[in-house]
């Protein structure tokens, strides 16, 4: 399998975590989202993924975008299952995963930040306020959900798709120096997950295209 | 089951389509997103859904937010299946669904539009430009994906989660008077789906809380 991704993209980060948890071999193809206006906008990459976003996973003739669709597909190839088989448990895992992947990540990704700071002329200060607003809103709700569902991980004690989606958003929040002290459970779960080898291997700073 | 939703919320609209396709009975509980600053922000509703968003589905003791998690859960209760069993087909359906539900809807929903037009002071004109930018970007990519995957529906000829996610976004785009002529396949699929009874019953204008 080939994974087209970018070290700092949180959706790419999710897929890397899943691949490492499942110990599936993959060829990592970096797509630089900033250099030369963004390599994801090249004609070659747009042919593979017309949305000009990362990640894209290629598995034989199958070309998949959307990290959550990719990870559910990987569940059919190798364990551990990241979405449980029981429908009620699966629903809770997917719900927490989507809280991060739908209600937070798309609003704070690179292209939206560029529009806010650039096109809308909000500048660096407006961009920071934007990030803080959406992160604090999403994390406050997530902290409440963890009170109901969490153990060592987001849902009980087993690593799931919810964890795979949480960790990259915490990484981003720390990068933008958001105060996370109002979310002690979220931070505790994050720290628990950081102990796991697959989560370490998937970290942005550990990727070959990282610029440190 | 009880569905807390709002007539114009595209995520609520998705769940209504799925419930009607499956002919599952439900009690519709309107949550007015605008009146009195938004009923979703009330203490009572926030207890049920701390993200203060719609929809929320209550099924016995199970309280679920996130429309896609809800619809996959409904797949375990009654047919027709909206996510196919075959892992590759399921991946393509989920990918197209998420193209709408993750890469378009969250960026153009009410709370984000309020921030753009209000907090960022972009006004009605800036809000319209924002919507046009993200809709055209997402629909152009979706049109390409349909070339590869569509039949009468988004993926082949069977109604799937992808269709359930597409229709509310087209409704929104039409509401904001976006020119959809560059997306003929998308419009054709939309028109095919509009012929189906469940899609008609789920339309915003058909809901008891619609303000026409």
Key attributes of the depicted protein:
maleylacetoacetate isomerase activity (chains A, B); 2 domains; Glutaredoxin; isomerase (chains A, B); Glutathione S-transferase Yfyf (Class Pi), Chain A, domain 2; glutathione transferase activity (chains A, B); Glutathione-S-Trfase_C-like (chains A, B); GST_C (chains A, B); 9 helices; 8% strand; 4-stranded mixed beta sheet; 52% helix; alpha+beta; homodimer; 212 residues
Q: Uncertain regions of chain A: pLDDT < 50 for 5+ in a row?
A: none
Average pLDDT for all residues of chain A: 97
Helical fraction of chain A equals 40-55%
Shape of chain A: globular
Structural class of chain A: alpha+beta
Major β-sheet annotation of chain A: 4 strands, mixed
Under the CATH scheme, which architecture of the largest domain in chain A would be assigned? Answer: Up-down Bundle
Strand content of chain A: 5-15%
Number of strands of chain A: 4
Order of helices and strands of chain A: EHEHEEHHHHHHH
Largest interface: A-B, 46 and 47 residues
- Span between termini of chain A: 27 Å
Radius of gyration of CA atoms of chain A, rounded to a whole number: 17 Å
**Counting H and I runs of at least 4 residues, what is the number of helices of chain A?**
9
| Oligomeric state of the chains in view | homodimer
CATH-derived topology of the largest domain in chain A: Glutathione S-transferase Yfyf (Class Pi), Chain A, domain 2
Q: What number of domains of chain A?
A: 2
Strand order of the largest sheet of chain A: 2-1-3-4
What is the CATH first-level class name of the largest domain in chain A? Mainly Alpha
